[in-house]
Each structure stands twice: as C-alpha cells, then as structure tokens.
Write a structure and sequence with these properties.
Elements lengths: L12 H12 L2 E2 L11 H12 L12 H15 L5 H4 E4 L2 H12 L5 E6 L5 H6 L4 E6 L9 H7 L4 E7 L11 H11 L6 E5 L19 H4 L2 E6 H5 L7 E4 L2 H12 L7 H10 L4 H4 L1 H15 L6 E3 L6 E5 L6 H12 L1 E2 L1 E2 L12 E5 L4 H18 L1
Parallel strand pairs: 1-11, 3-4, 3-5, 5-6, 6-7
Antiparallel strand pairs: 2-8, 7-8, 9-10, 10-13, 12-13
Helix pairs in contact: 1-15, 2-12, 3-12, 5-11, 14-16
Length: about 375
C-alpha cells in the first residue's frame, strides 16, 4: 500500500461526461478539442521531417530554430526581448509547463492563489508539491479579476498566483488595467511569482487584443508564461507547447524539465519551426472561432438559457436557470438530449454551483447544427 499524494482526486467530470457521451451516442460539446482537420501543410511538414530523418532526440530545451522563431513571434506580438537559449523551453503540452513551473518554485508550506472557476490541473499540481491552494472566486456573470480579494489573500507564504486569460471555462479576459493593478498590489511581495496560462492567446473575440503578461516588463520579470501549439493549430493530441521565463527562473525550470520529459517530439518541432512563420494561421484564428461561437449562441436563442459573455477560448457558458444542480442538468442533457456539456461547478474546489454549464464551440458548423437541433427538440419536449 502507498499513501496517496492526491487522496481527494477521483474520476474527473471530463472523463465521466465523455463516457456518458459514448454510452448514449451524444454529440460531445464537453471537452475542449476541435473536430475539424488541421492544416494539411502542417501535416505534410511533419511527414517531410520524418522522411528527412528528423526522428532522434532534439535539443533538450527544444529545436533551436523553433525557439528562435518563437522569440521573433512574441517580440512582434508583445514587444518583448527574448533569447531563444535563455528564456524558452519547448514542453510536452501547456499543462506540463504549468506543473513544471510550480514544481520549480514551490516548497512545502507555500501558498498559491487560484482564481475560480479554474482549469482542473491547477490545484492538484499545487497539492502534489506540498503547497496550499488559496481559492478566490471570480463572480458570475462577468468573472472580473478580483483585485481586492487577491490583495487581501497575499501574505509572506504566498509564492505564486495563477492567471488564465482567455479563461477556461468562462471565456473572460484579463485586460491591461487588471495587469497594472496586479503589478501594484504585488510590489510589497517580491517572493510572489506569476504563472500565466495563455494557451488561448489567439482565440480572442469582439475586437479585444490579448494582453499577455509579457507586455508588462515588471511582471514578466517574475512570470512563467505558458503557451500551446495544440490550441492554436488544432492539434491538441500532439501535446506540444512552450514556456517563457526570465533567465534566473528558466534556469531552474530546465533543471526539473531535464529529468522529466527531457525533450519533445522532434519531427513536429521541425514542422512547427517552419509553420509558425505563416502568421495568418494565428492572426485569423479569432475571427473563425468567433463565427463558431456566434453560430452556437444564435442557434440556442430558443432555449431558456442566458449566454454569458465569452471574449475568448473554445467555450461558451450558459446560465441554465434550473432547479436541479448543474451536474444533474448536464447528465440529463447527455442522456435525454444527446449532447454532452460540462457543469461549471466542476471547476471549483468545493463544487460551487451557480447553475452554469460550459459548451465547446470549436467544432464543425455541421456538428454545432446537429447539437443545436437536438437541444432545441429536447427543450420543446421538456417544456
């Protein structure tokens, strides 16, 4: 027998809902992955790299040309100066990057501020490192950054705060004023680091610009910034991303990384090193996803659900105004309507239930249409 490091962790709601979706033949709008094809040019780039013999270990910290091109991309987007060898590490997915960043800085007894609702890996990543999550609630329907509550939670034990923008599950975004306010309240606490989860950086809508922490030099000095190739290029199964950090932090990050993953998939990195130069692949992404978001929201106007503003990510949340819990409601939908969603209470450490469900709109239009038809038909029968 062993003593579990995560005794409170069981089967996740994502696994449960996907299993139910398979069992009931439901359309899966629960999990965040596209059902449409990635660019064939990127597929061919991987095939070419493999044919060219790029099949052995690459550099521990990532293919050199890919890191060079990432540095140039981020400089053009966020006016930050990055050295490919000192500031960038390619990781097997963004979740890995977050875990490695937390493992790099945390000691038993430290505290990490988590804004809820939160991506489900954050709290286990903190706990497994012997630290304590301090959960602060963002209030629906706006899910604004709760600066005053964050300030009240800061103390000598606080080692980090995790910021996610665009936000999963709500689609809210951190704006310039939020970063500047955060910079001000963190000034008396130099030991506090920022873990900035920016995997949806290019999935931003309604005329907003992504406000990366890299645009704020004083904050960037203490930040690990995590990005995802999978979210940007519709290849979530590749599990490839990268982490940006200043030299002194990246030096320690690399120490953890080298004895864990060591390095990432070589042919995919070779292909991405070239493909990342095609800027339209990410500059036009927000427009495409906004079209899908709007299509879903328009189709569900006949339902008695209230859409919650989503300015980014793959997700649209709806307030269902129901008498049963959001989890029970989501189970009813998958069993009775044949559409899988995710109850937002699953993103709270204590299961806070505001009667809100999350739908993923990163799907083919025909997939969204089929889901809309099922939900409208179910609603007509039920009400």
């Amino acid at each position: 027998m062993i003593e579990s490091k995560l005794p409170g962790v069981g089967t996740t709601i994502f696994t449960t809902m996907s299993q139910l979706a398979n069992e009931y033949g439901a359309i899966n709008l629960g999990q965040g992955f596209p059902d449409f094809a990635m660019d064939e040019a990127l597929v061919e780039g991987v095939s070419k790299a493999m044919r060219d013999g790029m099949n052995q270990y690459t550099h521990m910290f990532g293919h050199p040309l890919l890191r060079k091109n990432i540095a140039e991309k981020l400089h053009n987007l966020y006016s930050c100066e990055l050295h490919p060898d000192e500031h960038i590490t390619i990781t097997p997915g963004a979740t890995y990057g977050i875990y490695t960043a937390l493992t790099t800085i945390l000691q038993p007894g430290d505290e990490v501020i988590v804004l809820e609702p939160a991506y489900d890996s954050y709290i286990p990543n903190i706990v497994i490192n012997g630290a304590t999550p301090v959960c602060i609630r963002m209030e629906p329907p706006n899910y604004a950054t709760p600066i005053q509550d964050i300030q009240a939670a800061l103390n000598s034990k606080t080692k980090a705060i995790i910021i996610n923008s665009p936000h999963n599950p709500t689609g809210s975004i951190v704006q310039e004023a939020d970063w500047l306010a955060l910079q001000e309240i963190l000034e008396p606490f130099p030991q506090v680091h920022i873990i900035s989860d920016e995997v949806y950086e290019h999935l931003i809508f309604d005329g907003y610009a992504h406000q990366s922490v890299l645009k704020f030099p004083e904050l960037a000095k203490k930040a690990f910034v995590v990005f995802s190739f999978g979210k940007t290029y519709h290849c979530t199964g590749w599990k490839l991303g990268y982490c940006i950090a200043p030299t002194h932090l990246m030096k320690e990050f690399k120490k953890v990384h080298q004895f864990n993953a060591f390095c990432c998939d070589t042919p995919k990195q070779v292909a991405l090193a070239d493909y990342i130069l095609h800027t339209e692949a990410y500059t036009e992404l927000g427009k495409d996803m906004q079209r899908r978001r709007d299509h879903l929201a328009k189709g569900l106007e006949l339902l008695p659900w209230k859409p919650i503003a989503s300015h980014g990510s793959y997700f649209q949340c709806f307030a269902i105004g129901n008498s049963v819990s959001d989890k029970v409601f989501a189970e009813q939908l998958v069993k009775e309507a044949g559409v899988a969603t995710i109850p937002v209470s699953a993103f709270y450490n204590k299961g806070d239930d505001f009667g809100i469900i999350r739908l993923c709109f990163a799907k083919k239009i025909e997939t969204l249409d089929a889901a809309i038809e099922r939900l409208v038909r179910w609603n007509q029968k039920k009400y």
